[in-house]
Design a protein that fits this description.
The chain has about 100 residues and is an alpha+beta fold. It is built from four helices and five strands.
Length: about 100
Amino acid sequence: MKPVHTARHAAEAHLIRGYLQSEGINTIVRGEFLTGGIGELPADVCQVWVVADSDTDRAQALLREFLRGDAARAHAHERWRCPGCNENIEGQFTDCWNCGAARPR
């Protein structure tokens, strides 16, 4: 296992983890529960780790694209309607913000 991203907080780490998981890369978040004990002091404890070392290079490349906003721009025009609550969702999202239903394939 190797770390690929140090997050500012647990929410960011889980966002990154979810993105990499959606691209088929198995990841885990480490240190998320330590951030509460540290408070608002800056610390590099919340990290996203790639489970398989062989996925590290691909994960880092995807992460660079994600942080530049490439994924959001690429899918922004692909709006979809949630099958669970009928909400209109922007194309870069894989789940409904309102009810949590997954985007239909």
